Amino acid sequence: MADIDELKKKLEDGWVKGEPYVFVSYASKDKEKVYDFVYELRKRGINEIIATQSTSYKRSLIFCNQFLEIFS
Fold it and tell me: Could you give phi then psi for residue 59, rounded to 5 degrees?
């Protein structure tokens, strides 16, 4: 599994503002697995926003095209 800081940086750099997106929410204890999973989605051309402490949760949910909740 990739370094968590490296994955987080890749995810922050890759979101395409103004395009349809999937909002991804997850349990914080699973962040390493989820970041890796979301990065794989990104590599396949799926635009997403991943829930982080800096994410505007309510705004992201209102405007997302799809919602993905990952449970552990």
Answer: -65, -40
pLDDT in tens, 25-72: 888 888 888 888 888 888 898 888 887 766 677 777 778 888 888 887
Q: Which residues contact 16 (CB under 8 A, 6 or more apart)?
A: 47
| Structure letter (DSSP) for residue 30 | G
Distance of CA 63 to the CA centre of its chain: 14
pTM above 0.85, yes or no: no
The rounded Cα 52 to chain-centroid distance in angstroms is 8
Q: How distant, in Å, are the alpha carbons of 16, 17, 18, 19, 53 from that of 33?
A: 22, 24, 27, 25, 17
